[in-house]
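Internal QA ticket QA-208
Title: Verify multi-chain structure generation after dependency bump
Assignee: T.L.

Test input:
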Amino acid sequence: MNSQTFAKITMRVYLALFLAYMLLPLAIMGGAGLNNTRFPSVYPWVGITDRWFVDLWNDQRMWGAVRNTTWVALAVVAISVPIGTAAAILLNSVKPKVRSFLYGFMVAPILTPGAVIGISTLLFWNSFGVSAGLYLSVLGQVSFVAAYVMLLVLARLQSFDPGLEEAALDLGASHGQVIRRILVPHLYPAIGAGAIIAFFQSVENFNVTLFTRGNSDTLTVYVGSKIRSGITPTINALALLLIIVTVICAVIYEILRRRAERRAAALVATED
Amino acid sequence: MQELIRRYGISLSVIMAAMTAFWLLALVVIPNLVLFKFSFRLYLPVDQLGGPNDVYTLKNYVTFFNSPIHINVFFLTIVYSSLVTLICLIITYPLAYILAKVLKPTDTATFFLVLLIPLWVSEILRSFAWFIILSMQGPLNAILTGIGLIDKPIRWISGFQSVVIGLVYAYILFMLFPIYNAIQALDTNQIEASQDLGASTWRTHWRVVIPHAKPGIASGCVMVFMLCAGSVVVPTTLASTNSRWFTEIIQQWMFEGLDWNVGSAYAFLLLALCILFVSLVMRVLNVRLVDIAK
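Actual output:
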């Protein structure tokens, strides 16, 4: 065996090990949701059961948490997508100096620990007499989720030809039409991706929610308190369901992304 | 701004500016200023608010500097967050290089598609997964005793080892993606030229690939360090009594001590630590904020 094939094999092994490292823990956790043991485990394997799913189904607190999580996530999408998009458009049409100044403030929330965002949101709104609750979780989450949307839209704006807007204005289009018919259609893929990422960032969020939620539960907080207060495989059953949902969403996201890419490639081909 | 108005008209421009202003002022800047202000005030009963005791003071910070335990936890949080960042960097750099420059692009795309699953599963579940694996009767001990590597089960969840394992697993992808993006943008011809001119593999990486990957490395390090130092979920799931994390102390002040003023002082220390780390990385690697946050 020469050194080159050896290097190739080493690389393949490294990649395979990394994939196994990333996926096996999830498989073990999900698998434990099917195992008929009191403490979540895959070893020893006792037999497949659906009792943890039945337990989960009958858990009223879980359903409340699901409802809360959905509402919070939808609210975060509804607020952060318009804000992030507007901020990106604004950023794209100001002078370079102002641009880098504003940019710093806009990306700061991404680099701020969630606990700090949560506490500062709580204190700020408390000083107006708004006490902790899920609406504060929404506002806290928006502060950094909007930054992700802004970055996605900003990247998409790089490939936008402002000449199209000039042409439309010269031909007598109104400002509203320029946005509706020219700018926004170009931004659709970024806005769509931004909405999906915003939704997931919100569903996943723990740190900001923990400090702002008051007494309400979201799914992550529910899981967190279950882990602390006594572990049963119902959490694993829930984890398995969440992983399945994640896989489905990831596939949909990827299909949309590839379709957008193909369209862009086709467009370039026709322009040539 | 004139450019914006010319294109989209005055009313739409005002709406967009107002939305941006609401975000940056009401959700980002002012809440942090309020946090800062709060950290210099005392926690007082309602009837004393506005009274002679309601003054600006450094007392909350003095509480921190007078507590050797808290200083120790703060210090250990920094040390172990740096360690996790370093481990992630060492594991992902070769990986990012292989994915960007060795593997066929279609294979790389499939690889990343599979990685979307652990990326999108909540971090609380990712640390819970390791809680199961590392538990006394868990699969890891079963395998190790099964193949005869150890005689009796090891208590994995003890000290900082389980926290480090959990943090690496939870945040390693935030290191992989930016480094991959940076290396991918490097012209492969440069690597080949370096090899043709007789540079060793190490030298090629040191002089050609790593300098080009610097913004990605900076971005990954900043993200991973920040996520580690600010992590609440992983330490609460995987830490034991002899390994406490700084965020746990913040939580204690906020929820158990119910002293939000000391809590905000501690939160501000965490924020200051992250700002310091970002500026340090930017200085050492000589990159700008635009390169880090992409």
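Spot checks passed. Residues 191 and 197 of chain B are 10 Å apart (CA to CA).
Status: verified.
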